[in-house]
Batch of 4 targets.
Target 1
Amino acid sequence: MEMKWLVYIGVLLTGCTPALVKDIAYETAEEIECGYLPFELLCDFTLMDQHGNDWSLYDHKGKITVLDLSAMWCAPCRNAALASQNVVNSFGHDKVQWVTILVEDVERNPPDLADLQSWELAYGNGSEPILAGDRSLLDASGQNGFPLTSWPTFLILDEDLKIVEILKGWNEQTLKLAIEQILIN
């Protein structure tokens, strides 16, 4: 009887460890450590895209991913969106994908499907996902969510979805240099 309680308490304590974020790959029952800071595998997420479909990060390995955290009211975010296709075209769609997560609409509320479609009409070409997020995805420290402290914030992921770099603010040349470094290495 005592051993049963020890196992139960151990399970509870393991599940309550705040610094360790885990994602379970149920098909293999193996634990995958993930996080939101440089050199960590980005935790998987599933969000609605501009077509009303679910989009999951782990289904899109194999390319360098520019994960763009933006708000619809943010002018630098809109400038980045205007340049997104230029960035992807510079390296090729077979090597780089641009994924936008809109965190707020123009009224600072979570975006809905109409907002995603509006963003796509203004800035997209239909080939890159635009996803509906909200502030629950964010954590300035990066311990329990995306480390957003300025708009826009970019997480640059390698082909295995590990975070290589986090860029705050918009600068096309800096972003391109970060992608080039990943391609070289």
Target 2
Amino acid sequence: MKIVNLLALPLLTLLVLSSCTSVRVLTDYDKNANFNAYKTYAFYKTGIDKAQISDLDKKRILHAIDDEMSARGFTKSENPDILVSIFTKEREQVDIYNNYWRGGFGWGWNPYFYGGPGMYGNQVSTRTEGSLYIDLIDAKDKQLVWQGKGIGSLYQTKKMEKKEARIKEFVSEILEAYPPVATVQ
């Protein structure tokens, strides 16, 4: 029974690590900004045009931001209080799992060999890790007042529903940190 448990341990570890699909969020903000004064928004086209992703993914991100901003009581406006811009990065993440284990069953006196099957070698997997930055810029001053960054695995999938759901998850997790806790009264 111990052999089965030991053989299952690397598989269980791999499953646990691959199931970590959450988005890690980091934020920064201008402590002097009055976040309660921001009620309207518009997209900052100049910044969005610089994002190095497909136009379809830009549309998906902007649509998800629209949904989140509306849910937070913001109104889209021609004369906004804040401008919303995005920026993206991606990189290949390489994970190496050392699966060196030797053990087995049977009788033996040699401390280096117990007989029976064993598992050897390393397992290498790659995944694409993406970062989505959402910048909120004071429309009057043209100064960055809040920035949210979401970091997580990106999935290469043919199913648009899954891709859209992952984008919505990124945007939702990032904007959940807005406004900064220090300014909420």
Target 3
Amino acid sequence: MPRKLILIGPESTGKTTLSVHLAKLYNFDLIAEYSREYLSKKNNSYDYEDLKKIAIQQNQIEKNNNSEKIIIDTDLLTIKIWSEFKYGSCDSEIEKIISSYDRNNRYYLLLKDDIKWEYDPLRENKNDRSEIFLLFKKLLEKERLNFSIITGTGVSRVNNAIKIVEERFLHKN
């Protein structure tokens, strides 16, 4: 069964950059954040129903990849957090998929909001990143998912992530 390393956290915390770096460093398959592709086709406009469509496709992409080790630039936890934060609820189908996750083959890197926010047309919450970080942490704990928090800036952030990946992901039997 494939082992999955998932990077999650608030906007503008370096998830995509770090995902790409780690995938290249370890020669892992990388699953990109599907919502970016979806939203670019809709001119960055979306509603509650779009989140379910994004979640189903993101999950399908993940299920179709059977590589031994995979890095995922966000998963459905991000969609759940975002749905609840923006709309006050999350679709039950998204909840069902999350509850079916195999806790033994997933490891999360939760990126702290301790780096400077950078503009991107898809980003909406420059001023709520600390609150959103705490929502991610609480959800990971509630779902009993294995995770580590990644902090630091620049090279130290990358080195912190590499240390965690090597200690807790690569050497886990």
Target 4
Amino acid sequence: AHPGVRDVCVAGRADEEWGELVVAYVVPDDPASPPGLAELRSFARDRLGPAKAPRLVVHVATIPRTASGKAVRRLLEAQPSVDER
């Protein structure tokens, strides 16, 4: 629902300290000025709660999807990221 996000997929990533981090793979609406981590965390906290807010944002060109439209999370790790914060 964020105005600067065209598409998004959220997945977990292994983390030594926390066990798992919430990672948002974001296709920005305007690649020249993508929304940052602080902006997206604040937006998500207001709607979902602090535990579900992303700890990391990875800007990608596209979200890989199956023929039925489901995001293929395992391919997101292999996809080149445009920006990682």
